[in-house]
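Entries read chain and fold; for instance:
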Amino acid sequence: MNTIERYKFEDNGSEISFMPNYSFLHTLKWWLAAGVIAAAVIFYFKNILSEKFFIIAAALWVVYMGYFLLDLIFRVPVKYIFDKREKSIYRKLYFTKRIMGFDEMTYFINEETGGYYYVIGKKRNQFVKNYRISNYFSGSKSSRLKEGEFLDQILYPVLNVLDVPINRPQ
């Protein structure tokens, strides 16, 4: 899967849009399969397990599937739209919401334990409310290659539209 497909990047002339978590959909299919297998195993061994162990296993399965559904419903379908005509940035989950104008936007790298990712935010309060626009990168060789592809094929075209200065490595 190349970077354009991984982010579902589209540039139709009047707007640029992409989904930062679209590649996670492939991983969620495996998590769903694991959840279905776990449910089958739990209910297959229902008579063998003690009642308390069965309740604990079923409760853990419910929490697991709850997180799965939250990711599937609220994390994966997020789409960012950069509208060139209105010079605005929109975040679309199920409804489209304007989050900022082109002139208000800044981007930076947000670091967490063991990784980092690119975010956008309003210039004056980017550390208060920001929006993740990339997958996590770890600094490994393959991750650096994926980051380079993200920068070349997703972030730099977006920043060119916004007329934001780009710090490209030499």
